[in-house]
Amino acid sequence: xxxxxxxxxxxxxxxxxxxxxxxxxxxxMPLPQDMRTYAPRIPExxxxxxSDLAPALELLRxxxxxxxxxxxxxxxxxxxxxSLDAQNRALIAETLGSGEVSAKVRAIPAIAxxxxxxxxxxxxxxxxxxxxxxxxxxxxxxxxxFTAHRAAAGQTAPLAPGVVNAPPILVELNDKSAAFDxxxxxxxxxxxxxxxxxxDLAWLDTALGEGAVTILSRGYGxxxxxxxxxxxxxxxxxxxxxDALILDTFEVTTVPEVARAAPEDLAxxxxxxxxxxxxxx
Length: 281
Prior knowledge:
Blueprint: H1 54-73, E1 77-80, H2 86-96, E2 101-105, E3 111-115, E4 121-125, E5 130-134, H3 139-143, H4 166-178, E6 187-190, H5 198-208, E7 213-219, E8 221-227, E9 233-239, E10 245-252, H6 263-280
Antiparallel strand pairs: 1-5, 2-3, 2-7, 3-4, 4-5, 6-10, 7-8, 8-9, 9-10
Helix pairs in contact: 1-2, 1-6, 4-5
């Protein structure tokens, strides 16, 4: 009876052939890392000395209750830290920490915006104010984001060699900007799926200018959001954990959704902040 099992011939298969010099060291793509996740922050109250920290704890409780209200009703609520001493401000800063989203608003004075680890709870700092705002997105970002920091040249931007598909994209953006209706579905132009040249991108940058707001969202990779000087038009760029551009779009909207805290996030922030306050006290 013939044995149905056949041994493979020698000299074949992995490891049977000598490695080329270039294959002697295997190189693997680096694995994704640095994904941000929530971790409870329990401030060390003892480190702040014998100061009366009741004002900070009272304000943080008011912030938590405001987050619950804003989650259910919308809108925003703002809290001024001007009356608090250094120790109370330090407790608030340590409790809130720094979250995924930050922004720069080129106003007079300029405003630095930093989301806390509690989504929808924002720190606003300028030369004139130190405040906390509870909202899906701070009102200073939506007030006048398309005020020109660098003016838009529009169709008068000089056409350099290599500019091919950018002018029709500008026509589309101008049309959607003029007819913008926040109740209508989001309009997106995905540059990653459209044929274009580097000269196209440079021409669009000149034609659209730059607005007053830049937002950075850090999570699994980064998202950079820049207001243009054309009303309602934002440049939204996604980068992976290796800082390579993986998605490049224009969005015609009030503020891109990726920068907003959802109502569910605000409700969760209210609950988590109250639990942290219980742990402190």
